[in-house]
Amino acid sequence: MKLSLFIHMERTTPDEPQEQLYEQMMELCEIADRGGVHTIWTGEHHGMNFTIAPNPFINLVDIAHRTQHARLGTGTVIAPFHHPVRLAGEAAMTDLITNGRLELGIARGAYSYEYERLMPGLTAWDAGQRMRELIPAVKKLWQGDYAHQGEYWSFPATTSAPQPKQQPHPPIWVAARDPNSHEFAVKNGCNVQVTPLHQGEEEIVRLVTCFKDACREHAPQQPLKIMLLQHGYVAEDEADAQQAAQELNRFYHYFGAWFKNERPVSQGLIKPLSDEEMAANSYYNAEMMRNNLAIGTADEVVARLKNYEQMGYAEFALWIDSGMSFARKKASLERFIRHVMPEFH
């Protein structure tokens, strides 16, 4: 199983300098690359200091110039916010600039906060349908001289300019949860990214089972892969692991608040949650984080990841966004590289 890093620039308070946060993100990417991670993934989000990522291609080009070996992935581009011609060209240009290191992950998006700002009235269903139209169109634009008449986009014969370095095209990944999404990905020759969030092993098994079922039913021409994206923290000891569980519990309370889109937002920051509000929300708790996420000493994390490997996951991406201090993120990543990754070489 390949081990990767999933990372964004995140800002939790207005007094954190954005330039410093960006350079800290880049430093973690450089550490990961020197340590031998397979891919560095970063996504797309808008208007949210919780996840500052307006254009993943910009970040990946910068990361490419600061690293040597890691593949560079969008985790993920939000399909309804992109015209097929524009996405095909921007992804191909990124593939050229990064010397063929691009992995193109695409999703329908998750936050209604973003939908109502970029495409008012957009529903999750409609976003998913747009993704299903977008991906085949992008692949055909890379082949060239492709005209499209669809439900959402129409354009005369067009060839992506430029065309990607990787042939026939960069690997495409689809963020999938329900069986229909897995089937769409497999039928279109795409790998699959899954994110169980704070949920436990039952959900992790369900997701890989959906992928395996889709592969059995649709028999892809080329072998496809499934990647598990999950929060984790490699701890010095149990007290350190418990602190990480508390920090990730706080992160998920804020994640849930952004997802529900009911709380006031000012200057890109959501209204702070009180300790009382978080304690009253039983949907998340620190014990759940400790049990369900890749939190623990190096031996514990190795054992958990070996279990995922046995299930059939081809890649594990360590989701480092957490609201933790830069020092704690860095220490965990260095322990991950030093003590966990050698077990998977």
From TrEMBL:
<dbReference type="GO" id="GO:0005829">
    <property type="term" value="C:cytosol"/>
</dbReference>
<dbReference type="InterPro" id="IPR050766">
    <property type="entry name" value="Bact_Lucif_Oxidored"/>
</dbReference>
<dbReference type="InterPro" id="IPR036661">
    <property type="entry name" value="Luciferase-like_sf"/>
</dbReference>
<dbReference type="GO" id="GO:0047646">
    <property type="term" value="F:alkanal monooxygenase (FMN-linked) activity"/>
</dbReference>
<feature type="domain" description="Luciferase-like">
    <location>
        <begin position="1"/>
        <end position="313"/>
    </location>
</feature>
<protein>
    <submittedName>
        <fullName>Alkanal monooxygenase alpha chain</fullName>
        <ecNumber>1.14.14.3</ecNumber>
    </submittedName>
</protein>
<keyword id="KW-0560">Oxidoreductase</keyword>
<keyword id="KW-0503">Monooxygenase</keyword>
<dbReference type="Pfam" id="PF00296">
    <property type="entry name" value="Bac_luciferase"/>
</dbReference>
<dbReference type="InterPro" id="IPR011251">
    <property type="entry name" value="Luciferase-like_dom"/>
</dbReference>
